[in-house]
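Continuing the batch. This is chain 6 of the set; chains 1 through 5 are on the previous pages. Same settings as before, nothing changed between runs. Recording input and output for traceability.
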Amino acid sequence: MTSTFKIAFATLALAASGIASSQTLLNGSYDVAREFYKDYNAAFIANYKKTTGKDVKIDQSHAGSSAVARSVADGLDADVVTMNTSTDVEFLANAGVVAKDWAKRFPDNAAPTTSTMLFLVRNGNPRGIKDWDDLVKPGIQVIVVNPKTGGNGRYAYLAAWGYAKKKGGTDAQAAEFVGKLYKNVPVLGKGGRDATTAFLQRNIGDVLITFESEVVSVNKEFGEGKVDAVYPSISILAENPVAVVERTVAKKGTAELAKAYLNYLYSDEGQEIAARHALRPRSQAVLKKHSATFKPLQLFTVQEMFGSLSEAQKIHFNDGGQFDKLYTVK
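Output for chain 6:
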């Protein structure tokens, strides 16, 4: 072997070892979190390099949360999932790709942030929409995500149902109220981003029901002043759960990296980035600092109103459930 060849061979070996040491992580996530994770990933990569000396690359896969969950169950090699509803993580746990006790693997039910559902209306609120009752009025067009394909849609549905119950309604009256609301839905979005696009690019509807965090994304993507955020009197607490995809990390050897990635969401920097994207941080100190963003409103939990998201899924969103009874696909 000539000395030139030896040097070239050594260089190749070094390059190969460099490639091996630079791991890639895939985060399977829901539509509305797209911009948040762009910023979070950059912060995590910098922190990981600083603390471990290792380079990492983070890739993202976004769609409606249930669509992402199905893709992962069907073989998408996401190392972690960061969802907006626990039923999608439960689905993966039942499929054997996420740990059964995933909710105990990280603090706060493995949900580092929360959100709630509010209304986005066109600038100046021309239809005078203030609360859920306004969404069932004749002639109002409501844009919302299909609860069968996205957590965004499930939370919107449950928020409306819970509002009717909180106002003293029976289950039958809540069903009637939510039925009226969906009669005002001209088109169901596949995911949060699809619903926003229908509302703002295709100019369909008078009001969009979506996560609080979507306000920041809309202002960034479509420009300030296109929409006003309307906070209803009562809404739902939505937890954003995270989990390691055990099947993938075992195959790729990325378990430690995946755990570090999700743990960093609870760090001061992770919580601060979440707050800047209008995701409600678990850290009380960070939440207090951003009190101007997170307006106080009466929030109820899924547990108090429906027992659990899994129970709500069975009764309301499984095939033949309550949603199918009150909504006819247009």
